[in-house]
Amino acid sequence: MPQQSATDDEPEPIPARRRVVLSDGTVVPVSLDEAKVREVVYTFYRAVRADPVIGPIFEDAIAPDDWPRHLGVMVGFWSSMLLGTRTYDGRPMPKHIQLPGLDDVHFAIWLKLFRDTVAEVCEPEVAALFVDRAERVAHSFRLGLAYFRGRDTTTVERMEAAKL
User: Fold this and answer.
1) DSSP string, 91-150
2) What gap in Å lies between CA 112 and CA 94, rounded to an integer?
3) Which of 78, 84, 88 lies closest to 134 in space, CA to CA?
4) Which of 6, 50, 114, 125 is the most exposed place for a label (fewest CB within 10 A)?
5) 79: closest CA among 115, 121, 128, 129?
6) Cα–Cα dist 144/35, whole Å
7) Which candidate, 115, 117, 105, 116, places its Cα nearest to that of 54?
8) How far apart are CA 130 and CA 163, in angstroms?
9) Which InterPro entries would you find in this protein's record (predicted)?
10) Structure pTM?
């Protein structure tokens, strides 16, 4: 039987994504790809911008015409973290340290919105991976802020999105 050409009714098969294993040994589900990362980021930041508590913080920090670039950076950040794409090469801590009044209330809302977003747009295994990494990110930022502000970092406990 002859092989189908690109002009036949059936599309060419999409090459399989390479297997991704994170540094802690977690195997990334094959259903998690760049398109899903982008969907999560764009859906999440729509919720963030609409939130009455953290939305204004983001709106004050990111100029209206800079949102497309910021969303691209965030896609690169999550893609690098979860897919090993190495598309992010930034230093987010200095920017967050500059935000006056940023505290645990804000991180709790951020984590809850993140958890709700991934629960809405991802299958459970992928959502759990995103939430685990979001909890790690929040903890890292909270530790960095405590250190910068001269507070005792040993009192900073990891927030769990499921408990928020």
Assistant:
1) -HHHHHHTSTT--HHHHHHHHHHHHHHHHHHS-HHHHHHHHHHHHHHHHHHHHHHHHHTT
2) 24
3) 78
4) 6
5) 129
6) 31
7) 105
8) 16
9) Globin-like_sf, Globin/Proto, Hemoglobin_trunc
10) 0.84
Amino acid type, 40? V
CB 91 within 8 A of CB 77: no
> CA 41 to CA 46: how far, in whole Å?
9
The Cα 143–Cα 164 span in angstroms is 19
- Are 92 and 81 a contacting pair, CB within 8 Å? no
Q: Per mean pLDDT, which range of 14-18, 99-103, 124-128, 135-139 is the poorest?
A: 14-18
Residue 21 φ then ψ, to 5°: -120, 125
Please state, in angstroms and rounded to a whole number, the distance separating the CA atoms of residues 68 and 55.
16
Is 106 part of any known ligand binding site? no
40 Cβ contact partners less than 8 Å away, ≥ 6 residues apart: 78, 117, 118, 121, 122, 130
Q: Is residue 30 classed as helix, strand or coil in its secondary structure?
A: coil
Q: How far apart are CA 72 and CA 120, in angstroms?
A: 21
